[in-house]
Structures are given as C-alpha cells and as structure tokens.
Amino acid sequence: MELLLVVPHPDDEVFGAGGVLSSAARKGWTTGVITLTRGDKGKDLGLCSREELPRVREQELRRSAEILRVGHLEVHGYPDKGVADHPEIAELLADRFNELQPERIITFPPNGLNRHPDHVASHRWTVAAFQHYGEGLLYYYAPTRPYPGFSEGWLAPTHRVELDREALSAKIRAMAQYRTQALSVLKIMDLAAARLMEETFHLVGYTGSLRAGLD
To answer: In the chain, at which end, N or C, are there fewer CB atoms within 10 A of the end residue's CB?
Structure first.
C-alpha cells in the first residue's frame, strides 16, 4: 500500500488529506484509511437521534471514502473522546501496518492541531505502532500556520500538495457528505480556507527545504 491515513473520527480524513487521497488514487496508488471511532460524540444537528449517530457518521465516512476512491477502509469502534484510554490501539495499528505494508503513513501531529484529546492520542498510538513497524515514511498534518490559539507544538510543513481541479472537486464533494458535521465543515473552511487548495504535511525526520508532493 502506498498511502495510509490513521485518524480518530469520520471527517478527519477529508479535512486533512482529501485531495491527496484523491490524487493518489488517480496516480494508481493503493490508499487506505483507518478510523478509530465512529464519531459518536459529534453533533447531529437534529438529523438523527443520538443512538443513530454512530451509524449515520459511518455512512457519511463510507460515502466520502468512495468519492475519494479509498481502496481500503477500516472503521473501529473505540469511544469518541476516549481514544487516549485505550493504549492497546498501538498494538492494533502495528498489526495493521504489518499486514497492509504502507509506504507512507499520515496522522495528526503531537499537538493534535487543536489539542483535541483523540487527535493527540491518535498521534501517540500511531507513532508507537510506526516505531514497531519500522518501515516507510511518517507524515503529520501540518498547516502553514498554527490554528489560532494552538501555536504550542506546531510543526512547520516540509511537503505541500497543490490540488488540481479534479482533486479539489472530489474533496469538496467528500466534505459535503458530512451533513451531521456541517458546522465543523464550515468552521474548517473559515479557519483553514487555504487548505482547500493546498494540503501540507510534516515528514518526520526531514530537514530539507519545502518540497512539492509526497516523497
């Protein structure tokens, strides 16, 4: 597998790397997404009951993944806002890495971008699994500037991917599948509008100048 994302929630994949996933699939890369929760603590906007929300968010994720042409999708059922309480996730991910053999792995940076506990924990468990796996390249989401109020722990991007028209179209369509998270979609578009057109990442261990594309 050429590219694998590890994220805690449905919608984390498209906000951070929807264009890269779409572009990679068009290049013939095998892509994958592992989502650790079904997003059961997210908003529902009155579109479904709280009991129905995990099922609805998983459906939204599957529609997004189909649009982005994700080749391999895993949805795990760890508790939303409880990923930090399950250190066994590191062992699970190490097993999945050994099975899928990803050449590139993308996840959240140490500060989770916004210090969301699930984002931070996903980083921690992914790094632990990657160290055990010992192969490939590890990238973090890395906006060109920190989100307002979350500058501590920000890592500058080392790699950028400018989205072409087809990738941008796919990304916007995939974002639109998350009807229950419409307010979050709008917030991301407001705070990180530039990321709609250009996705940026930090390659762990890389010290050179900013590069175009992923290594």
So the answer is: C
